[in-house]
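If you are new to this repository, start here. Below is one unmodified record pulled from the training split, so you can see the exact layout before writing a loader.
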Amino acid sequence: MSSARRLPLRSLAVAGALGTSVLLLTACTNADTNRSSVAEAAQTESPSASATDSQSASPSGSPSASMNEDRTERKDLVSATKVTWDKAAGTAVKEVPEGKLVDLELKRTDADASASPSGSATGSASPSTPNPAPSQGAPEWEAKVAQSDGTLHRIDIDAVTGKVFRSQVDPDQEADGKTQVSEWLDQAKQTPEQAVKAATDKAKGTVTRVELGDNDDQKAVWSVDVVDKENWNKTTVDVDAANGKVLSQEVDKD
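And here is the target side for that same chain:
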């Protein structure tokens, strides 16, 4: 099994695991710390993936397994979410003319969600804030939508109401990051919807993240996180963005 690469991260304002193994149900123990992704091309820090996540070749755990902190958090977050990933994706893409979704993650709203970080789609000092931000800790979808030249726009969507509460051009993205995103988009013949279909055919559950990145062979890959509502384990499925084949599947039981 080959391991994937990961680029350095740098915080945006607040967001992972890839491999190239052709064996399904095989754990990739170092994927989270080595995978290159859209968030990294933007040089932003994503809190979604933990370097200490536990992986297992088993596709599911026992429904009677004790609820640890991570499982409890997944249960609480998914249960509070009313807007599905595809609805959030559609809303995000509408914010950027001719834009394409490259990253979408379900997460908790940060305390500074209503703040005004620099950089925006309108070129002003503040991002567009068309609706009030959810309360701290409420579920939100954080999306990255790319223009054809690789420029990333961050779109934050209330995961209960489906309303956009922040929209801005990524102020930290550098020129090489734009080039990387543009190259991934050129390689990606599979849409996010097709990638999710391939992933959920292998792992049943609720989609909580869809992200475009690459592996150590420089191939574009969609990484999809699926949470099983029977045991609240998270399965990450990596899908070849060119042909839609599932490359690997790993379960985080922590």
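Two things worth knowing about this chain: The mean pLDDT is 79. The first helix runs from residue 31 to 34.
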